[in-house]
Amino acid sequence: MNYKKILMASAILLSVSFSGCKKERIFNEPGNLVPKTVDQDPSLSSIYVNGTQLHAEAFGNKDSAMIIVLHGGPGSDYRYMLNCKEFANQGYSVVFYDQRGAGLSKRHSGDSYSIQLMIDDLDAVINYYRTSSTQKVFILGHSWGAMLAAIYINAGNANKIDGLLLAEPGGLVWEDVMKYTSSIQSFGFFSEELNDAVYLDQFISAKEDEHAVLDYKRLLMVEGSEPKNDPTGNTDGYQMIWRLGAVSYNSLFEIGKRENPNWTINLHLFTKKVLFVYSERNKYYGLGHAQKVSSPFPNVELFKNLDAGHDMISPSNGWSHFYPKALSYFNSLKH
Amino acid sequence: MTNLKKAILIVGVFLFINKSHSQNINWASLTNENKHVTNLNLNWDYASTVGIYYGCKLNTKPPIIFGIDYSVPVGSKVFDDFKSKIGIQMQLIKFQNFRLSTKIQGIFRKYEQPIVRLLNFGSDFSGAFGYYKSKWFVATEFGFDKAIVTYFKHSSRYKNSFTMVNDGWYEPATGGNFYYGLLTGISFKKHDVYLKIGKVVTQDFKTTPLIPYYAQLGYNFKINKMIRLKK
Fold first, then answer.
1. Residue B118: partners with Cβ closer than 8 Å, 6 or more residues away
2. Which of A41, A230, B105, B109 can pair with A36 through a Cys bridge, CB separation 3.0 to 4.6 Å?
């Protein structure tokens, strides 16, 4: 067989066939596989603070006591926490924002992240929406968002916050964070979940600045498992989010591993009551871990959210228990 | 011409021009009588997989083996993901006991999970250089696995979340990984047993897959050509 002739014929056939193709979609183009971010879509609500553009919204009377809602991740977004808009109907100003590099907020390079930057962003968002120095400010943080809230307090901001609701922060010392995240992310070597996560690597790879692809790939890894296999007891399986921030997640996690932080040193200075919520169905959390993580705060009320998993704020059954308790807590501190 | 036809054409081109070493042949133990090579392999190939291979030795000098292989990841759903390859492996250069072989394979693979189903046409180019004796061999290999064109079909679960998501063929190439490693094996009679291990890096040389290694434990069984006996 004359391979040179075959090669030439194939090359000609190939070039002819390519010329007649309809246009394919561009892999890294924003809006194809994941939604556009605020710097790419001007119709999205956003604020410019601390040198970045954040996807953010506020509901309710802007002069009322403010509840800042902090989503988990790092790198998730506030879409799954939109149930918290209900607090606006109860006389609160409710502020949501997608953290730097997460959700629909602007993307940044991995080496630009630091914990201090996340603290400064939160401080800037509070200052952006706060209408007076007497306006009370509460934080409602979930998962990583609860960690960020505690980190903010620990960084010398105890006097700026009037109430703190923490829902299942992984840990406030790095050892606890690793122990918790390792347990919820452990897969059997031959499991479908592990294979779904790693087999993907031969189909999709991305450069460090190809955020749309990186975020899409992270979505497939995080949200691609079957709900019944979720060890954290999540009910809906797929958590409603806009877009995950892969670089944000990786960078902040790497900082934690590198710096081995302890974010509890100054938490004793926060003497107001903390409402600390853990869920009934998250088998890796439980009362013991809740007591351990919340112990640096001098004034804590633990609340077990019945019939809920880690995503307690998102699904209806978790929210139906969470909301009245949270509202009662904020009302007790409002005046 | 549709993208599917285009992708099939790419694989077709590889089929005709390929020189390949998908499975690992001990070239020094390959005899003129060996006509067929069958193979069973256990892998870490991005995931834990099992595979089978069939190769047919063509009547050429130097020896060329045309083959197809198929592998699936283990897990509770066995056939939701798979990888199939078709190509030719060929010994290029022989100097004393040193041999250089190459491969180019066409790949068709599928990945499915609750958010998306991916169908990909790709290629796998590699070369191996090593020392081959009739009873054993040791070699190094270097290759490039390219996901050339991929079809994305999203589930209603993701479409409910992101209604604007676009299904269809995507380019430019959605992925590409280099790999390099060592392989060694022993041969006896019609059998080869070999092991290869190596590392995988993505095409930008800055990032790696989640588990950046590959490994394969394989077994070849060679079948001789049928000889008609004269009465």
1. A203, A204, B110, B111, B112, B150, B151, B152, B153
2. A41
Please indicate, yes or no, if residue A100 is contained in any of the structural domains.
Answer: yes
Pairing between strand A25-26 and B168-171?
A: parallel
Packed helices A144-152 and A115-129: angle between N→C axes, nearest 10 degrees: 80
Catalogue the E-assigned strands of chain B. Answer: 34-45, 48-57, 64-73, 82-95, 98-112, 116-132, 136-154, 168-171, 175-188, 191-202, 213-224
**Residue A17 in contact with residue B3, Cβ under 8 Å?**
no
CATH number of domain containing A151: 3.40.50.1820
Digit-coded pLDDT (tens) for B129-166: 999 999 999 999 999 999 999 999 999 989 999 999 99
Domain boundaries, chain B: 3-224
Domain B3-224, what fold? Porin (2.40.160)
Residue A256 resides in a domain:
yes
> How many A×B Cβ pairs under 8 Å?
159
Count of the separate structural domains present in chain A? 1
Inside any domain, residue A233? yes
For residue A136, give Cα distances in angstroms to A59, A87, A163. Answer: 16, 14, 9
Q: Is A164 within a domain?
A: yes
Query: What is this model's ipTM?
Result: 0.84
Contact criterion met (CB < 8 Å) for B147 and A195? no
Q: Give the residue from chain A lying closest to B77, CA to CA.
A: A192
